[in-house]
Amino acid sequence: MELSERKQKILGAVVELYIKTGEPVGSKSLLSELDMSVSSATVRNEMAELSALGLLEQPHTSAGRIPTNEGYRYYVDNLMVNRQIDESLRRHIEASFGSALTDPEKLLERAGEVLADLTGCAAVSTTPSGEGAYIRRVEAVPVGTRTVMIVLMTSTGVIKSKVARSDFDLNASVLESFYNVVKASFVGKLLSEVDTPMMQSLVASLGGDVFSLLPLMTAVSDLAQEAVHTEVMLGGQSNILHHNNYYGNTAYELLEFLRRGEPLSKLLSSASESKDVDVKIGSENPYRQLMKSSVIVSNYNIDGNRRGSIGIIGPTRIDYANLIPSVKYLTDLVGELLTQTFKEE
Amino acid sequence: MELSERKQKILGAVVELYIKTGEPVGSKSLLSELDMSVSSATVRNEMAELSALGLLEQPHTSAGRIPTNEGYRYYVDNLMVNRQIDESLRRHIEASFGSALTDPEKLLERAGEVLADLTGCAAVSTTPSGEGAYIRRVEAVPVGTRTVMIVLMTSTGVIKSKVARSDFDLNASVLESFYNVVKASFVGKLLSEVDTPMMQSLVASLGGDVFSLLPLMTAVSDLAQEAVHTEVMLGGQSNILHHNNYYGNTAYELLEFLRRGEPLSKLLSSASESKDVDVKIGSENPYRQLMKSSVIVSNYNIDGNRRGSIGIIGPTRIDYANLIPSVKYLTDLVGELLTQTFKEE
DNA sequence: CTTAGCACTCTTTGGTTGTGAGTGCTAACT
DNA sequence: AGTTAGCACTCACAACCAAAGAGTGCTAAG
Predict the structure, then answer these.
(1) Is A259 on the interface with B (CB under 8 A)?
(2) Average pLDDT of each block of 10 consecutive residues along chain B (345 residues)?
(3) Is A222 in Cβ contact with B238 (below 8 Å)?
(4) Nearest CB to A252: which of B159, B242, B341?
(5) Nearest-CA distance A45 → chain B (Å)
(6) Phi, psi of B217 (to 5 degrees)
(7) How far is the C-alpha of B212 from the C-alpha of A229, rounded, in Å?
(8) Any chain B CB within 8 A of the CB of A343?
(9) Crossing angle of helices B87-95/B104-119, nearest 10°?
(10) DSSP category for residue A255
């Protein structure tokens, strides 16, 4: 869509003013913000044309204009200039990561909280995907006579552990055969290869040891499942109540939607890989509950590979110019931290 | 406070009707619920006296009565009969614990979710306290040449792990001396004994090995800190929006309060040990944000020792008769599950 | 002690009426 | 042809008022 320079200036001003105040913006209040040497009537004419193009709309006949989803879209794609994140804020963010660095889950949870505080929106983050990761190591640490803790480490640095119980004593010889099986059948395997058929054929091949080993094997399989499955974390839910756009029970519906991890996970994984930051505005979102919300998602990379996402969810009149760079900055930071943590083999 | 039988009956009926409908209850609507052979005027007189006693109040002059905090308190202490939890519900609850049994943190988180769904309130739960627990075992599992995962197990079955990095190669001899130090200084110690002075004197005694061992020791100490510190989990926040008593931004304030773990933790730990279930009504709570809320908390025991708490937070007109038994039932169940899981030594 | 009756209070609801912000249109102006 | 002043029009919103309804407290009689 081609717009005259003046139309662009007006559209941009309407969007930014509406984002700031939350009130529909009229021709006069627009003029006082915008140093243009034209009259309000001219602005009105231009706004009428922008309405005809579907970029602005009126809540009712005699009110100011607010941007449509398409209006926001045009603004984000063509008009917006990303704000810089100032240095002191940057230091503040980096400082908030304290010592939670070692555990990826904790790190991502923290990242969500930081982003929520920073943006005043609800924030979501996913743990690093296990896709393409393989099993680096499995250990069985005895806890009791019939109890061991199984620890599984993946090539992406994720560590999962679980207690396994057997109905038989787990003596040295049982553990030895456990390690043999693990070495032969698990280490080096992709996490996604550990599935039901694989387990079945493994069990079939175990022979006499099956009864004592089965609980341990099941635990390893469970852990692989857990590790390949990305977890979705949510922070700053209460921020949603701050945005007066969520009146009535839309706030409840949104919170309820955010609680279910599965649709959230889909939402995040659908974020475009090609773009730095993916912005979905209102009805561009695939879920009914998000019709009045915008979602800003960015992917973080570990060692150059896309591994997970971090994003925020707010009203469509979210402050794109400030928050898009914030999300971008935080995902990059998380990617760096994780890469750094696990680069030592 | 002594009340005539009729006053008790009336007070009880007012409380229960108000809990059910949320509307102030008047003398007439009360009569139709209550099969008493008296007139509305008599009821009015009784209600006036209950008001004078501070057990009922009126939102405005010509409205029905609602219970005061003292009214609820009298009801809970003297009038209420605990409802039974029906068998099918009981089975449903037990089924919802699926396979999350092994990890206490997961179990408690799940318990919170279940309770939130069950009661329609926000639910909080704490992980088992490390107070009185000792270190049962510490393991160092090599991950890379300069990286090990430290795993700490406590006598209460909590397992914490953390990756530790050193600036030197962690060869077999370093690990051996690590295990020696652990055996001598950590295993069998109470978690609370691992504090800064203890660590300082330990470091002083390490001698030449200090540089390679220090990161590992620090990790062990961190894990002990983590294990002794109980974590507070929150579920069902969105349920708060359902209760129309939280109008305006009281809902936001409450959510914001619940987000901060520290006051929540204090709240839970202040639950009376003597009583089965501790109920705090409105201003009985020590926090301003809970003035309009009731908190129902119960402790769970592992092997007979109080280890943590589970509770719910809702409006003061919460359904005490049904929900107190629910909370009680769930805490007992959690206690049983945890005891069972860790009784094998 | 109980109860019928009644005056009184206070919220809630619906209707009416201004007010003000903002628009669209027309006609004049550059 | 684009711009602007002027003006009639629309519509949400607040203020105000009246009627309705629920419920009370009080009084006097049973």
Answers:
(1) yes
(2) 92 96 93 87 96 95 94 97 94 83 85 96 93 90 82 82 84 91 94 93 83 90 91 93 79 92 90 88 95 95 90 96 96 91 64
(3) no
(4) B242
(5) 40
(6) -65, -40
(7) 35
(8) no
(9) 140
(10) H
pLDDT tens digits, one per residue of A153-176: 888 777 788 888 888 888 898 999
Rg (C-alpha) for chain A, rounded Å, is 26
Per-residue confidence (pLDDT) for residue B345, from 0 to 100: 47
Quick check: A102 contacting B, CB < 8 Å? yes
In sequence order, what are the beta bridge partners of B340?
Answer: none
Q: Cα Rg for chain B, rounded, in angstroms?
A: 26
Q: What percentage of chain A carries pLDDT values higher than 90?
A: 65
Residue A41, nucleotide of least CA–C1' distance: D4
Contact status, residue A214 vs residue A148, Cβ threshold 8 Å? no
CA neighbor of B195 nearest in space, from B173, B216, B168, B224:
B224
Residue length, chain B?
Answer: 345
Residue the block writes with tokens 């295993």 = B187
Distance CA A154, CA A14 (A): 50
DSSP characters over B238-281: GGGGG-TTS-TTHHHHHHHHHH-HHHHHHHHHTS-SSSSEEEEE
Which residue of A161, A167, A222, A223 to mutate against B (max B Cβ within 10 Å)?
A161
Structure tokens at B47: 């209600």
Q: State pLDDT tens for residues A114-126.
A: 999 999 999 999 9
What are the CA-CA distances from residue B53 to residues B60, B64, B68 (Å)?
17, 16, 10
Which DSSP letter does residue B177 get?
Answer: H
Residue B22 backbone class (left: φ over 0; alpha: ψ -120 to 50; beta: rest): left
Q: Which two tokens stand for residue A257?
A: 């939607």
How far CA A115 is from CA of A93, A108, A109, A119, A269, in Å, comes to: 9, 10, 10, 6, 19
| The two three-digit tokens of residue B108, written as one number | 């408690």
Instruction: Give me the half-sphere count of Cα atoms (radius 13 Å) on the Cβ side of residue A288.
Output: 3
CA distance B270 to B283: 15
**Residue B317: which H helix or E strand, with range?**
none
* Cβ atoms of residues A73 and A320 within 8 Å: no
Output DSSP code: residue A137: E
Which residues fall inside 7 Å of strand D, measured at CB?
A: A 37-39, 41-42, 45, 59-63; B 24-29, 40-41, 44, 47-48, 51, 58, 61-65
A269 interfacial to chain B (CB closer than 8 Å): no
